[in-house]
């Protein structure tokens, strides 16, 4: 055999080790890169040839990750009015590249610039002006205090005189309507003229309610109106003023309130004080948050098209209390993520609040996830994490390792999980492979192209690799909409295995007579860790194409996406780039569209009367075991029964979880079937007669 000539190619260019000393080609034709440089990021291929044949190795992709480094500190600024100066630095020596770590530490620091002896000097003449201002302010305060004292004295005298006037006129005046004004005397300054009651009375829209004995003696008196005393409450708006806030609360017309709730205007007013400050300062992105004012009747918050919701059962909020509750999906770039080590983020990071509010019973937070769970044996170790006020993440529970001290219960389904919790805050689901089998994440591959007709020779296709959750797809659709892109076909599923193999993307079957690819290598790859960690922004690859002339309008090609030594998908593309492309809807027709907030009984499928009768029938332990425990097994909620056993009404918590699991289909059949199998025919009769099945 004739001797073979061996060359190493870097992005299809022959490597000459005599010109670049960083490359070393050994006698047995191995390529050694002495020191990884950013410029060495490329695709490397070994080519061997002789007069008989030519062989080419598979391409090896080298990605050099560059961690960021700090520039020197800038010079200290001038000494400021607060006797401090500061200096800054930037993470640009070098900047983080290809996913390298960002610099640790602060970008800015400050310190005292007078060695602790901070003496502020006044400009010439400033001292006289300051002292003059203080004297004037003191004199004005004395004058105002005297004026207030005189006015108070005169008003007290006027009230004293009014107490000894005709008592019969004062008694009859009390029964005039609130909008009644007594006739004025000819002389408006006459001391015997009665005061204009409407000048200081607060306004109260809507019919009045009866007041219990002793309330009329309180300082919060409400003027009478012409309305009937016992009319049903309309949409009622109450404004409560205090020294720092003005809060407005609307009550629905069909909300039934007890006397204590109606009359306790002070407790209603506290809604302004009890709102979580965090809810007002947190940035709420459009389409990623929702809020509603909820009371004792409960309700449901839903962020449309994301799979994220919060169920607040009746009785969760104490009587007489109202909270502005919120539900927010945190954007990746604005929060630290809960994963660490080999863990991967499986759900969006969601905040619900207000944090620290008192709950009488658990709420149910629903989160979508992308863990593949259809295997007979568990491949995942799943954990729920919460974020502290300091920003650190703490593990709340590990699924399957709950104890009596576990503060939550997690009901796991194929595409989402439901978390029963009694403490609102920020939560996320993470997981890692459970040896010996590697776990799989469910991904979606979405293909986009420019929507507008192409007027240049260049044309591009973008493929996103995202979590298989509604929220992740919505985020990409919103991003592409802002870029003028359009989804070409329904996203394709892909199982991504915890195998440390990259995701490879390539384009094929391009009509080379009319088109050429600008990609220098045969394929592109997304590193395994970028996908598995779940901490990256929506990952995508772009295929840039160029047509031979503007007359070429048809494009047909094939795009292959697969994990190395794993599963893959193929996109078959045939389109006219000179026409306006119509967007493909990723949502199936007839999919339920839930409102962002539902308040009171309308938020629940099971009427309260039926709920109470089911609880009364099943809460008490039964010798035959036909109680709430059997209901939990029938509904598939029996993974850790001790959690429900610690609640005052185990059946009520089970029904809350059932409501959360069936918010989309509102299916009463599963509950009715479970009750029928338990022999609870009397409850079935109630559901048939009282419920709207």
TrEMBL record:
UniProt topology in membrane? Single-pass type I membrane protein
Q: Which keywords label this protein?
A: Cell membrane, Developmental protein, Disulfide bond, Immunoglobulin domain, Membrane, Receptor, Repeat, Transmembrane, Transmembrane helix
A Pfam short name = Death
Q: Gene3D superfamilies per the record?
A: 2.60.220.30, Death Domain, Fas, Immunoglobulins, Thrombospondin type-1 (TSP1) repeat
Keyword Cell division annotated:
no
Q: Report domain Ig-like positions.
A: 1-63
Q: Where in the cell is it found?
A: Cell membrane
> Listed GO molecular functions?
netrin receptor activity
GO CC annotation: plasma membrane
**One GO term (biological process):** anterior/posterior axon guidance
Q: Which residues form the Death domain?
A: 625-691
For this protein, the parts annotated as crossing the membrane are 128-153
Task: Identify the InterPro entries for this entry.
Answer: DEATH-like_dom_sf, Death_dom, Death_UNC5B, Ig-like_dom, Ig-like_dom_sf, Ig-like_fold, Ig_I-set, TSP1_rpt
- Region (Disordered) residue spans: 175-197
Q: Which residues form the ZU5 domain?
A: 288-433
Q: What does this protein do?
A: Receptor for netrin required for axon guidance. Mediates axon repulsion of neuronal growth cones in the developing nervous system upon ligand binding.
Return the similarity comment.
Belongs to the unc-5 family.
Protein name per the record: Netrin receptor UNC5
Whichever gene encodes this chain, its name is: UNC5B
């Amino acid at each position: 055999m004739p001797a073979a000539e061996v060359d190493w190619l870097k992005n299809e260019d022959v490597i000459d080790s005599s010109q670049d000393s960083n490359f070393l080609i050994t006698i047995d034709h191995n390529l050694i890169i002495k020191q990884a440089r950013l410029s060495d990021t490329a695709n490397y291929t070994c080519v061997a040839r002789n007069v008989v044949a030519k062989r080419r190795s598979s391409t090896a992709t080298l990605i050099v990750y560059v961690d960021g480094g700090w520039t020197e500190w800038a010079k200290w600024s001038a000494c400021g009015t607060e006797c401090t100066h500061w200096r800054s630095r930037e993470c640009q020596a070098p900047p983080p590249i290809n996913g390298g770590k960002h610099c640790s530490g602060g970008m800015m620091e400050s310190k005292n610039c007078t060695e602790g002896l901070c003496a502020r000097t006044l400009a010439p003449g400033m001292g006289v002006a300051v002292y003059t201002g203080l004297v004037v302010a003191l004199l004005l305060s004395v004058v105002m205090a005297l004026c207030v004292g005189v006015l108070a004295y005169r008003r007290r005298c006027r009230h004293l005189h009014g107490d000894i006037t005709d008592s019969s006129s004062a008694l009859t005046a009390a029964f005039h309507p609130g909008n009644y004004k007594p006739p004025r005397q000819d002389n408006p300054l006459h001391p015997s003229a009665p005061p204009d009651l409407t000048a200081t009375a607060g306004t109260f829209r809507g019919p009045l309610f009866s007041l219990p004995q002793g309330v009329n003696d309180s300082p919060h008196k409400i003027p009478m109106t012409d309305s009937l005393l016992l009319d049903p409450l309309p949409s009622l708006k109450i404004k409560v003023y205090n020294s720092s806030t003005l809060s407005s609360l609307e009550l629905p017309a069909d909300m039934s309130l007890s006397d204590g709730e109606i009359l306790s205007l002070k407790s209603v007013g506290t809604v302004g004080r009890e709102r979580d400050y965090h809810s007002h300062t947190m940035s709420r992105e459009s389409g990623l948050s929702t809020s509603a004012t909820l009371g004792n009747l409960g309700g449901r918050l839903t962020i449309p098209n994301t799979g994220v919701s919060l169920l607040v059962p009746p009785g969760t909020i104490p009587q007489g209390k109202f909270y502005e509750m919120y539900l927010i999906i945190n954007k990746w770039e604005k929060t630290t993520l809960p994963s660490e080590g080999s863990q991967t983020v499986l759900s969006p990071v969601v905040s619900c609040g207000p944090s620290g509010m008192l709950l009488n019973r658990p709420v149910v937070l629903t989160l979508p996830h992308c863990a593949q769970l259809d295997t007979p044996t568990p491949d995942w170790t799943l954990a729920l994490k919460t974020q502290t006020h300091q920003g650190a993440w703490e593990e709340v529970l590990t699924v399957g390792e709950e104890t009596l001290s576990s503060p939550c219960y997690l009901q796991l389904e194929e595409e989402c999980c439901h978390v029963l919790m009694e403490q609102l805050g920020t939560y996320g689901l993470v997981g890692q492979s459970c040896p010996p089998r590697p776990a799989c994440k469910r991904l979606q591959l979405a293909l986009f192209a420019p929507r507008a007709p192409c007027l240049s020779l260049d044309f591009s296709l973008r493929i996103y690799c995202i979590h298989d959750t509604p929220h992740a797809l919505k985020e990409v659709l919103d991003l592409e909409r802002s870029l003028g892109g359009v989804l070409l076909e329904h996203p394709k599923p892909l199982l991504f295995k915890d195998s440390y193999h990259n995701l490879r993307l390539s384009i094929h079957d391009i009509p080379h007579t009319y088109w050429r690819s600008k990609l220098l290598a045969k394929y592109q790859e997304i590193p395994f860790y970028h996908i598995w960690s779940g901490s990256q922004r929506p990952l995508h690859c772009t295929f840039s194409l160029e047509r031979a002339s503007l007359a070429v309008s048809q494009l047909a090609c094939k795009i292959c996406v697969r994990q190395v030594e794993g599963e893959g998908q193929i996109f078959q593309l045939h389109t006219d780039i000179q026409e306006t492309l119509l967007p493909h809807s990723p949502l199936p027709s007839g999919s339920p569209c839930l409102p962002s907030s539902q308040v009171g009984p309308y938020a629940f499928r099971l009427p309260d009367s039926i709920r109470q009768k089911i609880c009364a029938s099943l809460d008490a332990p039964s010798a035959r075991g036909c109680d709430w425990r059997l209901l939990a097994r029938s509904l598939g909620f029996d993974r850790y029964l001790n959690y429900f056993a610690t609640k005052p009404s185990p059946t009520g918590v089970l029904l809350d979880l059932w409501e959360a699991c069936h918010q989309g289909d509102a299916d009463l059949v599963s509950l009715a079937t479970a009750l029928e199998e338990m022999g609870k025919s009397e409850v079935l009769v109630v559901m048939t007669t009282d419920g709207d099945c």
